[in-house]
Specification:
single chain, 370 residues, alpha/beta, seven-stranded parallel sheet, six-stranded parallel sheet, 16 helices, 45% helix
Length: 370
Amino acid sequence: MSSELVIHVTGARPNFPKAAPVIRALEALGVAQELVHTGQHYDDAMAKVFFRQLALPQPDVDLGVGSGSHARQTAAIMTGLEELFLERRPALVVVYGDVNSTVGAALVAAKLGIAIAHVEAGLRSFDRTMPEEINRVVTDQLADLLFATSPDALTHLGNEGVRAGRVHFVGNPMIDTLLANLDRFDADQARRDHGLTGDYVVATLHRPGNVDDPADAAELVKAMHSVADLAEIVVPLHPRGRARLEAAGLFAHDRLRVIDPLGYVEFLGLVRGANAVVTDSGGVQEETTILGVPCLTLRPNTERPVTITHGTNRLVTRADLGFVASQVLSAGRSTDWPVPPLWDGKAGERIAAIIAAFVDGKGAAGEGRG
């Protein structure tokens, strides 16, 4: 390796809570590191607020790629990162999750012979219609260090022929961030901010399978209105798909309130006080698992099955959403629920120790790909 520099590549809202504890733990170990923000998510609510609230250092480099089709966005990310990696020649590039910035960085680093660490490796939905699934599979095949958040991820990586010595079961760094900030998630303040007096549901909706096709969007709106008949719904709405959902009539129900995306602390304060969450997001399934909030995931599959076996999550169809929501709201929130193994707030420290050994050339992983 030509240097001992570690470069972290983040690009979208889900990356930041995962990166924060890793960066902090590496700093404590004295590892030289830089943070690159590709700008895949670029406005305040989707990106900048996370740097402030999670005490992330300001990015050393902001590529500012912005939005676009998958191909255009990934190409812009790769072009910018290639120039940067050639200049910096890092010992290791750390990528997070399953966004376009992740696979773009992995492809560039692999072709330049730079080692790659993938935080949140091995998650699989087995649904190749989801762009995130393709990003996950490609990144894991290229990575030298694969950090798994759940036991099922270890099985998937083994089945795909990934050498066991490259895989490390470390827990979930996003949960580190949640637990570190737990006292800041003020459900009472969230109620006041949004004028909520009774039971309420939080919803996050943005997956292509729910919002891209007008027929799917119309079906989704009908399902959400059936939940709004039972309780107020607050929907911090992602820019993606907003116009289509509005055209399908999402805003028409007087107990369904659409708001702009929230900061990390404000959003989880709102979730913490909810009677249930309806989502098609991956990370929300994990956050509700720790907070003990019933989560109804509007997808036919999940790459996070541990949130079902060791959490509060369940998969539902749009057709069944109203019925299942009625059951969940009637039952109320449980006072006791299982939590996945190693989701204990120390994943960042485990990851940092392995990375530090790798960069120093002391770990077995330093031998390179197998």
